[in-house]
Design brief:
- The complex is a heterodimer of chains A (113) and B (114).
- With 113 residues, chain A is mainly β.
- Chain A is built from no helices and nine strands.
- In chain A, strand 3 and strand 4 form a beta hairpin.
- Chain B has 114 residues and is mainly beta.
- Chain B has no helices and eleven strands.
- In chain B, strands 2, 4, 5, 6, 9, 10 and 11 form a seven-stranded mixed sheet that branches. A four-stranded antiparallel sheet of chain B has the order 1-3-8-7, with no helix packed on it.
- Chain B is globular and about 45 Å long.
- Classes of the chains: A mainly beta (113), B mainly beta (114).
- Chains A and B meet through strand 3 and strand 4 of A and strand 4, strand 5, strand 6, strand 9 and strand 10 of B.
């Protein structure tokens, strides 16, 4: 799986948009971009994923550049409960035991009042 | 209902003991995993299990062994526990759909070896 690079930490004001960047310059054509987050003392939680197109769900939006070498996770109105470590992961699709997630260091997002 | 449940949530034990952590998923997923999160908070895959196919992270000591009595369970057995085994262990499951996979994680088991 391709490696990802994320800033170790970011701050965001409550109510403002949080934009979390991720570089994945070695991504392959069949690799998806996934975002997970881990709130303190809890298991990781799936947020969103995408291949080429921008994606939006009830939690966040994912913007993938045209060359797919980077992406941005957007939390449109960050709340204190969004304080967590956010992981950007790239992996191939497909069934089987070999299709596991490889976590990097992630970005520690601190949402401040 | 909890999708992926682990027991126990906390486990304190002495060096040299053998212990097990249980994991159950009620999502009907066909792949289950064990991850380890150490004191530096890095999450590392330990095992991935799908239809009796087991993928082992080569860095995992053979004192660790996964046991799957059925598709909904993947238990983790640890023999001869060492101080360095202290960590939070997360179980997860996933099901491939339309070429993509969303993994669901349990709440973790904090293992402390004294």
């Amino acid at each position: 799986d391709a490696k990802t690079t994320q800033p170790p930490s970011m701050d965001c004001a409550e109510g403002r948009a949080a934009n979390l960047p991720c570089n994945h310059s070695t991504i392959s054509g069949n690799e998806y971009v996934y975002w997970y987050r881990q709130i303190h003392s809890q298991g990781p939680q799936y947020i969103i994923h995408g291949l080429k197109n921008n994606e939006t769900n009830e939690m966040a939006s994912l913007i993938i550049t045209e060359d797919r070498k980077s992406s941005t996770l957007i939390l449109p109105h960050a709340t204190l409960r969004d304080t967590a470590v956010y992981y950007c992961i790239v992996r191939v699709a497909g069934p089987g035991a070999g299709n596991m997630l490889t976590f990097g260091g992630g970005t520690r997002l601190m949402v401040k009042p | 209902d909890t999708a992926v449940s682990q027991t126990p949530k906390y486990l304190v034990t002495q060096m040299g003991n053998d212990k097990s952590i249980k994991c159950e998923q009620n999502l009907g997923h066909d792949t289950m995993y064990w991850y380890k999160q150490d004191s530096k908070k890095f999450l590392k895959i330990m095992f991935s299990y799908n239809n009796k196919e087991l993928i082992i992270n080569e860095t995992v000591p053979n004192r660790f062994s996964p046991k799957s009595p059925d598709k909904a369970h993947l238990n983790l057995h640890i023999n001869s526990l060492e101080l360095g085994d202290s960590a939070v262990y997360f179980c997860a499951s996933s099901q491939e759909r339309g070429g993509t996979t969303e993994a669901f994680f349990g709440q973790g088991t904090r293992l402390t070896v004294v």
